[in-house]
Specification:
The protein is α/β, with parallel strands linked by helices. The protein contains 13 helices and 22 strands. It has helices at about 15-30, 50-55, 70-80, 90-100, 105-110, 125-130, 130-140, 170-180, 215-225, 255-265, 310-315, 335-350, 390-405, and strands at about 5-10, 35-40, 60, 85-90, 115-120, 145, 150-155, 160-165, 190-195, 200, 205, 230-235, 245-250, 270, 280, 305-310, 325-335, 350-355, 370, 370-375, 380-385, 385-390. The strands form 6 sheets. Strands 13-12-9-14-17-18-20-21 form an 8-stranded mixed beta sheet, sandwiched between helices.
């Protein structure tokens, strides 16, 4: 998704500038073409050679160098950029951007481009909270800039508070989201579920499954990167939760049902990749069940009565507010995959169902690959080869996007989808 994309990165004079080096490295590894622009004193923290070595491209900085080439380069850099990122953004550069000043190369590029603007503040907590800084950020946001707030943590001053530069993965997620605004899922609202559910036995124990959430996460990230507004409903997982989307935790099946029914109102598609338990404990104990307790049978065994969980996809189908919603289900099977998948597709009235045989090598829980078959409502079946789950996710959205187009055009773009030149 980042292959060949042009990103202009302005690095300002913050101690967090060294973290921008990792950002440049990760962007370059993903295939992006990164033009690094240093403000006047940023090179005091990290030398230009570091960024040049990591980006494999020239580094820019001095607007007043004697040849005069840099003075004209701001137009070239601004027009070529598909995204302008200010990271880290100090209180100083935020103030200068808000006032439309053009006293260095980074500021002139910001004025010369119509690309989306992502600002990543990093500074001492009191500086960030100062009314002037907050007013400047508010003004920039009103003009269409995306502000990625700093995190809470240890600061260079030794204090703990807000102002910490976000992790590289977080920044990358927002870069991907902004670059995907013109994708085939742009302005679509999609809901994705991921992970397993945990049905409580008592406050300590539960019945669960081996779902890692990797497939659902790959689907959510792919949709985000293609321009969708993603709501990710997450059960129990063993993988890092993606960034750049709305995340709703849902531990048990009933919680996931309630979260899905709320989230699908007004959405365009629901992809149920979560492994939702078919059954739950009828009466979970409100205390830890111990050996020899009254819950035990006379012979020392323990009986748990299971009752069916609701069928979330069927409840969604009956929801008037979800009329026109595309519904894509998943089926993890161990035998009779084709028969079970076909029956589930028809029983739930789905637009599409993705099935896999979890007994096959590389296709079970907790692995980064999957081998799936895609069952369509019109009876077609597509068998995919063993692929990384990221590629499986792309293949699924490749098939969902045309169905969304058949539903009708997406809503008109919002005024902040792309910054207009002032």
């Amino acid at each position: 998704m980042l292959q060949g994309r042009r990103i202009a990165l302005v690095v300002s004079a913050s101690i967090a500038a060294y973290k921008a080096a990792d950002l440049v490295s990760k962007l370059q590894q993903a295939g992006a073409l990164v033009d690094v622009i240093l403000t006047a004193h940023a090179g005091e923290f990290v030398r230009p050679l570091t960024f040049a070595a990591l980006s494999h491209r020239p580094v820019y900085g001095d607007l007043w160098e004697p040849t005069g080439e840099a003075a004209a380069r701001h137009i070239e850099l601004g027009q070529a950029a598909e995204l302008l990122v200010i990271a880290p953004a100090t209180a100083d550069i935020i103030a200068r951007l808000a006032q439309g000043m053009a006293d260095d190369l980074g500021a002139t590029v910001a004025l010369a481009t119509t690309a989306p603007l992502l600002i990543v503040p990093a500074m001492e907590g009191h500086m960030y909270a100062h009314p002037a800084t907050q007013a400047n950020l508010h003004l920039l946001a009103e003009r269409g800039a995306t502000i990625l707030p700093p995190e809470v943590g240890h600061l260079a001053s030794g204090a703990v508070g807000v102002g910490r530069f976000p992790e590289t993965t977080t920044i990358l997620a927002h870069i991907r989201r902004l670059l995907g605004q013109a994708g085939d899922l742009a302005r679509r609202r999609v809901v994705v579920t991921a992970g397993g559910t945990r049905e409580p036995i008592d406050p300590v124990r539960y019945i669960g499954n081996h779902s890692s959430g990797l497939m659902g996460f790959a689907l959510a990230e792919e949709a985000r990167d293609r321009g969708a507004e993603v709501t990710l409903i997450v059960g129990a997982t063993s993988a890092p939760i993606p960034q750049g989307m709305t995340v709703i935790p849902a531990g048990a099946a009933l919680e996931m049902r309630d979260a899905v029914l709320r989230a699908v109102v007004g959405a365009d598609a629901l992809v149920m990749a979560a492994a939702v338990a078919d059954y739950r404990i009828e009466h979970p104990a409100d205390h830890k069940i111990k050996k020899g307790s009254r819950e035990e049978n006379a012979d020392g065994t323990l009986t748990l009565r299971l009752v069916p969980n609701p069928d979330i996809l069927r409840e969604v189908a009956a929801l008037p507010a979800a009329h026109g919603l595309l519904r894509i289900g998943f089926a993890a099977e161990t035998n009779d995959v084709a028969a079970n998948a076909t029956a589930k597709l028809k029983r739930k009235g789905l637009n599409m169902l993705v099935a896999n045989d979890i007994t096959q090598p590389g296709s079970g829980f907790g692995v980064t690959t999957n081998e799936v078959a895609i069952y369509h409502a019109d009876g077609r079946v597509e068998q995919l080869t063993l692929l990384p789950k990221t590629e499986v996710a792309a293949a699924i959205w490749d098939r969902v996007a045309p169905l969304l187009g058949q539903q009708g055009d997406a809503p008109a773009p919002t005024p902040t989808a792309r910054r207009e030149r002032k």
